[in-house]
Amino acid sequence: MSPIFLPNEQATLDFANMFSGCLKKFRLPENGLTIYLDGDLGAGKTTFVRGVLRGLGFLGNVKSPTYSLLEEYYLPCDLTVQHFDLYRFSNPEEWTDAGFDDLDTHAIRLIEWADKGGDFVPPADMDIRFTVQNTGRMVTINALSNLGKDLFSQWHISLGEN
Ligand SMILES: Nc1ncnc2c1ncn2[C@@H]1O[C@H](COP(=O)(O)OP(=O)(O)O)[C@@H](O)[C@H]1O
Ligand SMILES: [Mg+2]
Q1: Class of the CATH-defined domain 4-160
Q2: Where are the domains positioned within the chain?
Q3: I need a surface site. Which of 47, 76, 103, 155 has the fewest CB within 10 A?
C-alpha cells in the first residue's frame, strides 16, 4: 500500500479508529492476531493504540506500557487487546521471564519495539510503520500472513469508503 500522510495527532486517532472498525468485524482466530508497530520514539505508535482502543469502546485512560511492558484490555466488544512495549528489554529472553508465553493467545497483540524480543515474539501478521515527516507522520502498512492480508483487504476497502 502506498504510505498515508497523517498531518496531526487527530489524523492518527481517526486512522486508528477506522482500523478498529475492521477489527470489530474480523473473525479473530483462536491464536489471535499479531501486529508490530514500528517507528522511532515519538513516531505515534502509542497514539495509534489509543485510537484503536477508543474505537473498540474502551473509555479509560490508555497508558504507555514503557515501564509495565504490557497493558491488557478486556473490551466490551468481547475482544482482548494486549499492548506491549519492549523498548526497555535488554535481552530477548525477558519475553519469557515476563511470563508472556503464558498469556491468553485469543487476543489482538499490538507490539511496540518487537525487535527487542527477537524470536520469542510471535511473528507479525501485519506491520504498521510510522515515520516522522515534518510536523506529521507517514504510515505504511504491510500484511505479512494470510490472516494479515485478509484484515488488510478489509481495511483497504474502508479506507476507500472515506
Ligand atoms: N500524525 C501525527 N502528527 C503529529 N504528531 C503526532 C501524530 N500522531 C501522534 N503524534 C504525537 O506524537 C507524540 C508521540 O506519540 P506516541 O504515540 O507516544 O509515540 P511512540 O509511542 O511512537 O513513542 C505525541 O505527542 C502525539 O500527540
Ligand atoms: Mg509508545
Answers
A1: alpha beta
A2: 4-160
A3: 76
Please tell me the distance from the alpha carbon of residue 133 to that of residue 130, in angstroms, as a whole number: 9
Is 44 a pocket residue for ligand 1 (Cβ < 6 Å)? yes
One-letter amino acid at 106 equals H
Q: Cell 485510537 sits at which residue? A: 51
Name the residue with the closest Cα to ligand 1, atom 10. Answer: 9
- Whats the size of the chain, residue-wise? 162
Instruction: Quote the CA–CA distance of 2 and 65 in Å, as a whole number.
Output: 30
Does position 42 have pLDDT exceeding 60, yes or no? yes
Q: What percent of the chain is predicted at pLDDT more than 70?
A: 98
Q: 50 CB under 6 A from ligand 1?
A: no
CA 46 – ligand 2 centroid, Å = 4
- The pTM for the full model equals 0.96
Does the beta carbon of 82 sit less than 6 angstroms from any atom of ligand 1? no
* Residue list, CB under 5 A from ion ligand 2: 45-46, 64
Q: Retrieve residue 7's grid coordinates.
A: 498531518
Kindly give the residue spans of alpha helices, DSSP state H, lying in 44-142. Answer: 45-55, 94-97
| 48-97 pLDDT, tens digit each | 999 999 999 999 999 999 999 999 999 999 999 999 999 999 999 999 99
